[in-house]
Amino acid sequence: MKHLWIRFGCFLTGYNYNILRNCSEAAFKSVKKYTAAMLIVCILWFFIGFTFAHRYLALGLPGCILAGVLSTVVIVQVEKQIVLSINPGRLLLIFRGCLAFMMSILGAVIIDQILFEKDIEIEKISYISEKVDKILPSKTEELRKQIAVLDTTISKKEEEKESYVDDISKRPTTTATTTTTATRREPVRSVTPSGKDTTIWRTVSDVTVGTTLIPNPKIALIPSLDSTIRALRQQKSQKENELLHMKPSLEKEMKASTGFLDELTIMARMLSASYVALAFWLLWILFFLFIEMLVLFSKMGDKSNDYEKTVMHHMNLQMRRLDALGKGF
Length: 329
What we know:
This protein is mainly alpha-helical. The chain has two domains: about 5-120 and about 260-329, no CATH class; about 175-215, no CATH class. It is built from twelve helices and two strands, in the order ααααααββαααααα. The protein has a two-stranded antiparallel ribbon with strand order 1-2.
């Protein structure tokens, strides 16, 4: 358990504990300092990753924890680029400074959307209302066209029904004619050329025409026509109800589907309208920026310690050994 914090610091910063334990207290302090700075950044970015996954990706607890861990791993790998550099070049310092600036903005944006949640919800009402007002005319126009088509269809069906009813009232019954044909054979007397009487049979058809009164056939069409008109009226009523509640429905739908970019736009509107919110947001950016630059400034302010000189000495010995082996071959 001895030097447990130092071992953890070596794991976090990438230092070799076997080399560090033989170095001076100055090297130990450097590791502790880098560890503390990296822990601050890691805790912040774990919270940012966890919150972003929960709020915008709608992940469960395991997914949010995984997102936080991934954010922390990325930050650790980025910080190691500075911590493990013995003599960091200017290009690396500029690159890390630009990256810190971008990360500070991203972190401030995500954190502020949590801190300004109530204010964003208030501003979201007007934002969504403006978007609905842009979409509403086309949506209502389409519904009105559908209602007009249904009105026309219902009117035609009602006119058709009225014509049926008028015809039925004038002619409640109609005459149906039935024709019955019956055949029979009858004898016919004939005289042959020799003068002899003979009888032959012929087929005779008897046609009987009868009339009966039946109900007007259009009576059977009325129930199906009524059913069609009823269904069309239900559709019209449903469309009119949708038209009546179109705006609240659109507002509810848009509020449920508001994403990260929408909230970013809302926050930009808030910042442009309120100097207090803008000042607070800039303070958060500076706070994140200074924390991101903490490891970089610590590295730039430190002089080379015995750990780094030991590493360089080992490297020089190895290079000489390799050069000697190369000459021997």
